[in-house]
Write a structure and sequence with these properties.
Radius of gyration: 13 Å
Distance between the termini: 16 Å
Organism: Fusarium proliferatum (strain ET1)
Order of helices and strands: EEH
Low-confidence stretches: none
Number of strands: 2
InterPro entries: AGP_Transferase, Kinase-like_dom_sf
Protein name: Aminoglycoside phosphotransferase domain-containing protein
Shape: globular
Number of helices: 1
Strand order of the largest sheet: 1-2
Structural class: alpha+beta
Helix content: 25-40%
Largest sheet: 2 strands, antiparallel
Strand content: 15-25%
Length: 69
């Protein structure tokens, strides 16, 4: 699924579990900063409120990724 700011993939595993992968769209300005701020915000909300927040298993920036994604 492609939105204005991200490309989203839902992975479904044989055991019935699923995961989401979200990658900033190529046209997004400052994608690394955007990802850092989103992760920090989700962690803050999870730690300081009762609002349900998806669990982040891993995240990274393009500069940390050998494919540049």
């Amino acid at each position: 699924m492609k939105g204005g700011y991200n490309v989203f993939y839902r992975l479904e595993y044989k055991d019935g579990t699923s995961a989401a992968v979200r990658i900033p769209s190529p046209a997004t300005k400052f994608p690394d900063e955007k990802v850092r701020y989103e992760v920090a915000t989700m962690r803050y909300v999870a730690a300081n409120t009762t609002i349900p927040v998806p669990k982040i298993y891993h995240w990274g920036t393009a500069e940390e990724n050998p494919l540049g994604l």
